[in-house]
Amino acid sequence: MNWDEGFQVRPLDLKFGMDDDWHRMISRLPHMIAIVILAILSVGCATLADVENVQDKATDPAGPIAGHHIVGQTFVSHFPRLEAVQVLPVVYEGSSLSADSVLTFHLRRGVGDKEADIATASVKIAELKHNVPYRFDFHPVGDSKDKPFYFFLEASQTNGDSRISVWSSKEDKYPFGSRYVDGQQVDGDLTFRTYYGYSTPAILSALAGGAGRYAWTILPLLAIFLLPGYLLLSLRPRKADFDMAEITALSVGLSIAVGGVGLLFAKLLGVRLDTPIIRAVAILLAVADAGLLLRDLRSRKEWKWPSREKLLFAACLAIVLVISAGLRFLHVRDLVAPMWVDSVQHAEIAQLIVANGGLPDSYRPFADVEPFSYHFGFHALVAFFHWLTGTDIPRSMLVIGQALNALTPLSAYLLASRLTRSRLGGLVTATVVGLISVMPAYYVSWGRYTQLTGMVLLPIVIVLSLDALSSKRQTPPLRPLTIAAIAVGGLVIAHPRVTVFFLCFLVAYLIVEAFASRANWRHLSSRVVGISAVGISGILIILPWMWNILGSLVPRTWQGASLATPSDNPFPWAFITASNDRILIGAAVLGLALGLVKRDNGAMLIGIWTGLMVLSANLYLIGLPGSTMISNGALAIALFLPVSLLDGQLISTVAEHVRFERWKLHLKMIAAVGLIAVGLYGAQGLLGIVNPATALFFKEDAQAMEWIAMNTPKDAKFLINSYSWQYGIYAGSDGGYWIPALTGRKASLPSLLYALGKPDYVTTEASSMAKVSSGALSDEDMRDFLRANKIDYVYIGYRGGVLKPSQFVDKPGYREVYKGEGVWIFRVEKD
Are 152 and 70 in contact (CB under 8 A)? Predict the structure, then answer.
């Protein structure tokens, strides 16, 4: 592959008229539409978890299930088409199980003996495994929305002892039902989850409703994700080298980069940002971009339609992006706030940017840590959206985060079409990323928005960097170099670890160039000089920020990484082998093998790049310290990009072998529709991608936050549920973790931002919460802890944790001041 020629625009077919190809294509259009409709109908069969019907505390067996002994649970289904209930079995050791012993699930409307079974399901007890969840599936109950139900389990055996149980909590953790033993209500709840069927009509209804409610976000999203980058791209003298899809992708990436770099420059220039300024800038950008479009149109002597093949691929890519956006909306349609513990710190950083009118100097008041050194590319976008629309920060995070996720296929398309030299390869890659691969769709379950921002930027930065090297000159021309440098600077600001993956690509590129140039040292030296120019220019643009990173963030990260061992950084294979990802990896390996056999430089480049990415997270393999500077977890969830590129490489190689370029247009359209149909079928696995176990904040918590804001002093401090998260760091386990971000009140445990502080500060905060998180404090010890830490209230959220309502209800020194559905707030009475 000659990289100097790899960025030249492909020839366009600009003929007009309706020839035989068009007639054949139109005549087959009904068949193609039927294929897509069948694929859509197949998607509407997903089984999703009811996020609020999750009682995951497992402290005690519910009691043996044998003979006449049964256990059960009442609950309320929040959705129609209830179709599964999951429990956590307890299989006793030493039990003599008969091969015919069966555990039977019964679902009823109520507890009474006169109630008839709505559904039943059975499993042989010998097939159950201890502590491995088992799901009882049954025919969907259509009218289940907001209806109460009761399920119970009974065991039957023909001989031997089939003693078995399921896990439960002795505390009442689930507010919509109760635990039953032998038909009698007892304290606590079973450990269970419920699932519902998501039908095609329900999907279409949700999408239609979402389009109606959120159509207004299109304009602010365009202002954030398109207008700045398109204006900057106009500086490039050869914009015609890219087609419209590629220009859009480049504009998106540059807009993201400009957001971070612009926020940094505003700080350096002392400009305080607010709603009027940001809205004025958006209007000016819109006017400037409109002027550029008019200029481009007037400069053309005649308007020419793109070639039919190019229109076909553009239409297919647009369909993939629209479906991807729809999926990402469905993932968050019922969420009140972003998920998991990372989201809390991201919300606080965005709050700090808004409150300070730009970058803050420290993390106060959320954590007693300075200086501010967090990668803020995502938070800048959230702040801009908040300033433009007035939307609260949690909702802004969900909108921006899912918009980024929906744009990932577009940026992946850009890189794939360049590396594979095939629009088909690009379309396959986009389909894999948007509709089939578990990552990055699963990022929403972790709130991994900062790495997501970096992963959207990464392909754009690579393409712009290589574009700057495409000149015959020793050093890149100024304008392409400037654009690439801004993109590189934006990537560093968005996520330093993803920046390391970019550096791995550049090293892989030089290796391939050395191999392809056959020891042409002059050519290779020009590439080294060009890459160095891009990298140095990118660093110079954000040099003040680099001092922050090198002076605070990197030393802290390196200190922990240097003390770690390979056993502290295992590779999470489950992250890359779930759902359809095994097939994608197999196809990627085949694509790499075929590419290497053909001596394809693009395949070789992706393969070497992937190897260097793996090496960057496992430096011990070459005897270097710092094994956890790039964790294998961060690596695993980034591998979707090279895997999808190799999937595109495989299909483009096969297409070349079967001479796809020579196919008639209607045959190409059939192939494209078939690809979309496969993507739609694969999207079925992504509908249920949200992990209910990572949801900490619910609508019941949101109601409690409103009460806190209206009824407690601004300097109030709350004791919240917490647990040992990882590496000696503690995190919140329920909605109380959001109290500082949403109400401005203090919590007994700061967000994960506290882990960025000095070792003494981190140790003090961790040791303080270790006492509470253990759940072993006596009543007197608890009162001493509350007094010593000047805590005014105790918050127990819907998700719950080690703190139990029974510890405070009707106990001296506490007064119940709020009780919602599964949420308690107690006032700590002063002595």
Answer: yes
